[in-house]
Amino acid sequence: MVATDAETARRRRLRRRLRWWYRDAGRDLPWRHSRDPWAVLVSETMLQQTQAARVAARYPAFLARFPPPAAMAAATPADVVVEWAGLGYNRRAVSLHATATALVERHGGAVPRDVAALTALPGVGPYTARAVRAFSFDAPAAPVDTNVARVLARLVAGAACSRSQAQRLADELAPRYAPGEWASALMELGATVCTARRPACRSCPVVGDCAWAATPSGDDPAAASAHRARPQAAFAGSDRQARGRLVAALQRGPVAQARLAQAAGVADTTRLERLVARLIADGLAERRDGELRLPGR
Fold this sequence. Notes:
Blueprint (H helix, E strand, L loop, with lengths): L4 H21 L11 H10 L5 H14 L3 H6 L2 H8 L5 H18 L7 H5 L6 H12 L8 H12 L5 H11 L5 H14 L46 H14 L2 E2 L3 H5 L4 H13 L4 E3 L2 E3 L4
Antiparallel strand pairs: 1-3, 2-3
Helix pairs in contact: 1-11, 2-8, 5-6, 8-11, 9-10, 9-11
């Protein structure tokens, strides 16, 4: 799609005004003070389905425990999960450990800047790879998360966007100069102003150039976009809940075989054994002396 002169001018205004707003109104979040690629990779993994405030409270101590990838690779997955407690799904901690191990084995402990090399790492998808490129290396990249996709659909397109359309729009808008700052500004607008349920249009710094605000029908284009947030599956009674209970119990000490069902809150022995087997396969538990333990504990 070739932008008209008027559209090109509108996009320039959006970039300029949104950047000015972000420099003045952007939240002071700890990961925004570092361009270290490992620190960025850790923060992006933490921020997946976890609120920024919770991550901000835990991020500095977690990074101090595992400052380079080699420090995490030298630890066990269980060590990482213990430090991860309170940050959501333990599988993300296990995945991050696998990423650190791959970085040591394939890249000498350094985080690559190439998208193909980044996405070849376990647990690193296209969004995270682009985020590392933009925020760490200030290289041309346009990470699109749920917040960015919502902003693009409302502000720029004024229409629902598929995943490919949202990414294409983001690529077109990404500036050559300071693409990381621009990506942060888009995310900040989506997180604090252009929110999913109650967008604060009256306080939006770019409402004058918003395609949705100029649409007579008023239908929210983000509501039908591919990147919209979807409700999570029920947690109560799920394998995720049972697994979390088991890990929490193991952090307190070894659990005897006879107490596993109580610790996990699972009566079905077949399901319980499947959960235990998965924990062992993930490196989060081991059987020793008739008990289930954290590895090395």
